[in-house]
Amino acid sequence: MAEKKLNNKNPRQIDSDKEISEENLSIVQRILNLFKDNSPEGKKKQLLKDIGKILKKQRYKFINVKTEEALPALAKFYHQIYAVTAVPAKFLAGQENIPSLKSLFIDSVLSDQQKELIGQLQKENLEKRLSESSEELENIKKELAALIQSISNEQMANANGIYKQYLIFVRLLKFDYYFLLKKFDSLLPEMDFKYKPLFKSINCEYITDDLIEMASMFPLLLSYSSWNGVFDVLKAFKQQDVLSRDDWSKLMRYVNNVANSEVFKYMIKLVLKNPSYVVRIEEPKESIFDEYISKLKTSVEMVIQKVAMEKKNSKKDEVLKQVFGETALANRMKNYTEANNGIFKQKLLGGYLHVEAINYVKTFMLDYVKKDVMKIVNYLIVKAEWKTNASSKEISDTLEALVSLSDKIIQLDNSLGSDGDVGGKINSYMKRMASDPKCKVEIKKLLHDVNSAFVLSAQDIYKNLTKIGQALADILPEFVEKPPMNIIINPTVVKSAYENGEGDIVEDIKSIYKKIYVFLNLMKIIFAN
Questions:
Q1: 395 neighbors 471 (Cβ within 8 angstroms)
Q2: Among the four residues 12, 22, 231, 384, which has the most C-beta atoms within 10 Å?
Q3: Cβ count within 10 A of residue 508
Q4: Dist. CA 218–CA 330, nearest whole Å
């Protein structure tokens, strides 16, 4: 009956007893809180104590919480990764980021047609096509534009994605497992996986960075369910599988379990004595497609420029021989020379930009214009009776302008000497450049003005050579056609007198006109941008 009465206790009485019990508990809690350390340091100690409790309950016994020693089980975890990654790490050593491997990641997302276009734009093919026909230049530009336009955003995203995954894989490979594991077993041989390690516990302070580095890779590694895309590319690169895919899958399952257990997270917090520490995750950010397209454009442009330069130089050499013969040209300039460019290039100032071209111009002016051209023109001016004074005055003024321009070339060159107006200023600025940055600006300005002055003089020479060449071409029929063109009234007398003392006027005019014409072609080549 008593038991029955107990069971049939008044509900109000039960609630009252509960309130008394909770009140007593609250009083006890308040008393205990009086002795509890609520300072920041006290809270930190409590959190670290809680972390220790979590680690003690962990499935993976990687740490002795009391002594803060890393246990052999942790070394076995790293050793298992080492066993799977050591071979591919050796295979790829030094080749992780070479262009040919990057290209394979690009190829993995391209269509056959896109691959064919890329093949046509490779250096060897470009050089062959451009050497065979200059018309190929436009075709090449169209092919490059078509390729770039054909690449979809999805392809770019896929290529960048798989390459990012590869970089995560490389980060895992580059971890120094052997150095770490030697701390647990000093006798451990490198790359010998038949050896049975005898791992010992070590102080976690020695491997804190290793714990953080591995923990930073966990989220990256486990964000991928399949690695076949990466391994397919590496197989194509090395012509064999770089690792056992089954072993890799088993390893990733093991890593996934360890990562999800958060044992590394709590170990790091405990060892660092920092309960709020968060491992920083850095994802690879390299955009392989942007880099690839940029390099492809640059490569194509460089080949085009190279072939164009080779053709230009070949044509230049051919024309040079026609103008100056087989003998190598001596340097006729005193100061505007390549030898004086060294200091400017060293200081990144640019320097003299048209040394070779101006030397050709000066040589032609001295050796041909002031000799052969002047001789025939002066003879015609003096000996011929011109139908109009305007005709003789025009050719005379043109010759005079050429002589003046030739002298101007010499004067400009002389001004660059150490005692010259421009050269003296440059030397003065050079001495003060280290202490006064403005001097560099002034030197660049002077050099720009000098180069411009030489180019303008060369352009004026080109114009006047064209005029005098055309004048000689117009005069020539006077001596070979009947009736004459009536520029010169007495061509027969002039021709006869010339033949008595100088030779054949027709052949000499032809020769001089041809020389001028060829030199004008040379000037087009050497001053072309």
A1: yes
A2: 384
A3: 17
A4: 70
DSSP letter assigned to residue 514: H
CA nearest to 416, candidates 332, 346, 361, 337: 337
Residues ≥6 apart with Cβ < 8 Å to 374: 399, 403
Tokens of 389: 């004074």
Q: List the one residue out of 365, 288, 317 whose CA is nearest residue 107.
A: 288
Residue 418 burial by CB count (10 A; 0-12/13-18/19+): exposed, middle or buried? exposed
Among 213-222, 306-315, 425-434, the range of highest mean pLDDT: 213-222
pLDDT (tens digit per residue) in 3-23: 443 345 454 554 544 454 545
The Cα 345–Cα 108 span in angstroms is 44
Q: What's the burial of 470, exposed, middle or buried (CB within 10 Å: 0-12/13-18/19+)?
A: middle
C-alpha 128/C-alpha 133 separation (Å) is: 9
Label residue 98 left, alpha or beta by phi (over 0 means left) and psi (-120 to 50 means alpha): beta
Handedness of CA 254, 255, 256, 258 (dihedral sign): positive
- Residue 281: helix, strand or coil by DSSP? coil
Q: How far apart are the C-alpha atoms of 451 and 353, rounded to whole Å?
A: 6
Distance between CA atoms of residues 465 and 78, nearest Å = 81
Per residue in 350-386, is it b (16+ CB within 10 Å) or e — as a string? ebbbbbebbbbbbbbbeebbbeebeebbebbeeebeb
What amino acid is encoded at 84 in this protein? Answer: V
pLDDT digits (tens, 9 = 90+) for 145-180: 999 999 999 999 999 999 999 999 999 999 999 999
Rg, Å, the chain Cα set = 44
Structural contact between residues 61 and 75, judged by C-beta atoms closer than 8 angstroms: no
Give the contacts of 45 (CB within 8 A, at least 6 positions apart): 37
Are the CB atoms for 108 and 162 separated by under 8 Å?
Answer: yes
Angle subtended by helix axes 263-272 and 245-261, to nearest 10: 50
More confident call, 523 vs 315:
523
